[in-house]
Specification:
Enolase-like, domain 1; TIM Barrel; 372 residues; 23% strand; 2 domains; alpha/beta; four-stranded antiparallel sheet
């Protein structure tokens, strides 16, 4: 079956539900705009043809990363689920519904993956029966939150123990150069990058100088300026040897095309941020056509949420030059929503050719239903 064919495969949705699963975090994860202390994960459950499909929405509790947050994704999901319940629906038809609404990409991503899961079970084919990966494994980097030198050092040691030699440090104004120098001098990673999550003001002279200074110390600098400052990111790329990558700035294919017209942008593809697996695959295809590069990013997903990340990471142009963020769920959570967990082997993740069938969603974790 070809990719275009499975997009039009239909299944009748007998029931659509939303659950929220409370996940206990092993440790806080600090970024420039706030601290992630808890994770309450909305899960979409679709039932049809005697089958069950599940989709994770790895949104944060508060809108510190994107405009979406826990309650907003639940409310938007209700709008879409009410339209598809009791009807035959295909991926292509769901995408048309999603396209009629602006934003809400995290919620769209969870709904789409639940439908993918349902349809793949119906046809008895996995993702790689119609998608051809360019690689069977890809290199990882470890993303480390803002913290003390002691905390950062402990996380780097953990990464090195897994064979990971690429390190990404979260930074913010006033906390950038020091942690980078610490890691480089003490550990000498093979690849080092920083991620500011849009916390620097490109029109503040002190911020601009700090970004230029830290960029001289790293291989890549990710999203230093606010999301919509694509032009200012292009100016930075002309003044630094480091690769400039965009995360929050790229929510649509149009965003990428605009950035690509201005500079050799590197894209952090997070499927929930761009609206789901289909949009991620189209984005990866466009990046490859322009001979640019991308890597896969994470939103503290569970193993289930990371399945689609793995699929996108295996595509041409993604995680080939730049390492991917793919820390196992066990690094952040005491419990997981799927099994078996992803394994890191000598700093790499291997692509699972049987996804999603080689993973079991733990339906017993669905205790709190919020819709209907």
């Amino acid at each position: 079956m070809k990719f275009e064919e499975i997009l039009h495969e239909k299944i009748r949705i007998y029931r659509a539900e939303i659950y929220v699963v409370d996940l206990e975090m092993k440790r806080e994860f600090a970024i420039s705009r706030g601290v992630i202390k808890t994770k309450n994960v909305p899960v979409i459950k679709l039932t049809g043809a005697g089958l069950k499909g599940f989709g994770e929405i790895p949104v944060l509790q508060e809108p510190i990363y994107s405009a979406e947050f826990l309650e907003s994704t639940i409310d938007f999901s209700k709008i879409v689920l009410e339209q598809i319940t009791g009807k035959e629906i295909s991926i292509s038809e769901l995408l048309e519904i999603h396209e009629s609404y602006r934003g809400n990409n995290f919620a769209k991503s969870g709904i789409e993956f639940a439908l993918w899961h349902l349809i793949l079970q119906k046809v008895g084919k996995g993702f790689f029966d119609f998608l051809k990966p360019s690689k069977i494994r890809f290199r990882l980097q470890s993303s480390i939150g803002i913290g003390s030198f002691e905390e950062i050092g402990a996380h780097v040691k953990w990464a090195f123990g897994k064979g990971i030699r690429a390190i990404k440090l979260k930074i913010k104004p006033g906390w950038s150069i020091e942690p980078v120098k610490f890691v480089k001098e003490k550990f000498a990673p093979e690849f080092i990058s920083v991620d500011a999550n849009g916390s620097f003001d490109p029109f503040d002279e002190k911020h601009w100088k700090e970004i230029l200074d830290v960029s001289e110390l790293v291989d890549e600098i990710e999203q230093p300026f606010i999301p919509k400052a694509i032009y200012m990111h292009s100016l930075l790329s002309k003044k630094t040897r480091a690769a400039v990558s965009l995360d929050e700035s790229i929510e649509t294919l149009i965003d990428f095309r605009e950035a690509a017209e201005l500079f050799d942008v590197v894209v952090n593809i997070k499927p929930p941020r761009v609206g789901g697996l289909y949009n991620s695959l189209k984005l990866a295809e466009e990046i490859k056509k322009r001979v640019l590069h991308a890597f896969i990013g994470g939103m503290l997903e569970t193993t289930w949420g990371r399945i689609q990340n793995m699929v996108v990471a295996s595509m041409p142009g993604v995680c080939e030059k730049f390492p991917g963020d793919f820390s196992p769920a066990s690094e952040f959570y005491n419990e997981d929503l799927a099994e078996p967990p992803f394994e890191i082997k000598n700093g790499y993740i291997e692509v699972d050719p049987n996804a999603p069938f080689s993973f079991r969603f733990k339906e017993e974790k669905l205790q709190t239903r919020v819709y209907p």
